[in-house]
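dude i think i finally got it to work??
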Amino acid sequence: MPSARPSLPARLGGRLRAFFALDDEWVRPSPGIGQSDLTFGLVMLGLGLRALELSRSAGGLTGVTEPRWVQMLTVAAGALPLVARRRYPVAVGVFLALHMFVVGVTMGPVMGQLAMQISYFIALFSLVAWSRSRRTAVVVGGGIIAFMLLWVVWQFALGSGASEYLDARPEDASTGIFAPLPAAIILSFAVNILYFLGALVGGQVAWRGARQRAALEAQAATIHEQADSLRRRAVVDERLRIARELHDVVGHHVAVIGIQAGAARRVLDRRPAEAAAALGRIESSSRDAVTQMRGLLGTLRDIEDTADGTNPDVSQGSRDGDSRTPEPTLADLATLVGDHDSGSLRTAYRLVESRDGAHRDVPAPVGLTLYRIAQEALANVSRHSTATRVDVVARVECEGRAYAEVEVVDNGRPRAGTSGSGLGQLGMRERAASHKGMVDIGPRPVGGYRVRVRIPLGEKDV
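look at this
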């Protein structure tokens, strides 16, 4: 059965509890007593003394019998504690509440001055706004309000408040729809309730504003930390990308060098010209490997400078002036496949396009990804397979569901004792996944091994 709806007092209590944040554990930082606090206290002292003399000149202190220096000391005692209102809000609030009661009983006209009323209001306001504990603020502030309202009741019920009011009222004063004494009592209660509740609610509103500002500052700090974390993550991701690039470059060129060295060794005595050509390809491949690795390591140094806050453009100018070769694309696949061709491994390359020149419109990141995947697949064939033939097909489709694809198929099987670490194939999958590509890697039912990767192209890519 559905639970009964809470009663009106329960709902009202819940709203008050939420407004005064009684369950909030946040503690407002306690500021020290600064120059602004000293200035504020002195300003309030000056206003109080000036108001005292103006009231004396206007005849408002005729009923006060205490000496002038006592009156001035009383005003100072009500203004100077405001210097510590933010550092010790509860103590200042309680002290000025007692000050208001004692001075009101002994020197009512002095307590009733506007400057003194402002001081009492600020003390109660600061008690709620700066108190470290919400429960303490509400309990002490509520206790002060209850005490002051009881004091008003005591003045009218048991004190001389009613008689003083009736004596001061002219005999020929007009009477409204309410009797004079009840009207005075209601009006006095209304003014005091608005006065004290205004200080209480205003202080809580100020506290909630400070709480919100603190939450915003914490969020800003969290966002800053997350931005730093994302920046570091981007550096790490780029390092991983360069590590894969190095893996592919080194693996490819080492495989080519191994193939050409084996071919040169076989024909060195019988066909010196072919051996010289193979050695020339070894020399070219080794130089290409060194050039690409220097470029990648230069990029890695740029990443380190960026992570350290250094301007990469400036730092690069102080280096040895390495020239960066352009990243390979689909147009370089033919050369890549040709480098792996030798007497023991025959390679073939074919480009299939839906229109002439479509491969040149493939985005550079996609082209680089397909090139590196083909490079890794060919290196794996050279290192781990008994294949004697490899066919590489690149396809670019611009109509309908546009895509770019590379497929590497060989006719061999795994060579015993040459199992790899699997990082090469993992790198292929990660590269393809970065472009939302599909990967098909594994043995074929009819024999051999196939690596096929297809990457979708958007409209802007074609």
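The longest helix spans residues 180-267.
im so relieved honestly
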